[in-house]
Description:
Helix content is 21%, strand content 34%. It is α+β, with helices and mostly antiparallel strands. It has a 5-stranded mixed sheet. The chain has a 5-stranded mixed sheet with strand order 4-2-10-6-8, with no helix packed on it. The longest helix is centred in the first third of the chain and has 43 residues, at 10-52. The chain is globular. It starts with 9 loop residues before the first helix and ends in an 18-residue tail after the last strand.
Amino acid sequence: MTEPRATPSSRPARATARGNGRVAVVLAGLTFGMLGAAFAAVPFYRWFCATTGYGGTPTVATKAPEEALGRSIEVRFDTNVNGGLPWTFTPDVPSVDVRLGETVTVAFRIENRSDKRTRGVATFNVTPPLAAYYFTKLACFCFTEQVLEPGQVIEAPVTFWVDRDLDHDKNVKGLAGLTLSYTFFTAPDAPETAGRAVTSAPKT
């Protein structure tokens, strides 16, 4: 028996089906490519912000400057805790006066007021945003996740300096002060139940 020959009307239909299949493959490839780029963009964006100070993100360094200038600038500290994380988070001092290029270490007090083990991560930024490029951290509790046992209190230090080049930038030259802000959030994948608040006297 001979196979039926394709009629002229069926040939365009088959060609259309093949074309649609190729389009579907191309679209799927683009979708997965864009998805992969989106995931790759997250660490790149973090690196970009830390390198350039974009969006008020302080830069990060591995070596402190060797000398400081005479002019001082006030660095104020602002601390916040996002709802749901039963922590008290305060700086040891509300502000410090530092010389440009001077390396300074300040401490923050973090207390877990619940009866459960809790985990938190901190975001941070500098205002005014244009000054963030000149604010550099050498070490900071915000670089890693913080884990506190029930009722535990820790001292969390940050070491930083304000770059001497700040006074070479006409946009922030002569700036009298800036603010370093932190906000703690419950760490990703941490238990949703934060625990019952402990009402005993604060530890010191």
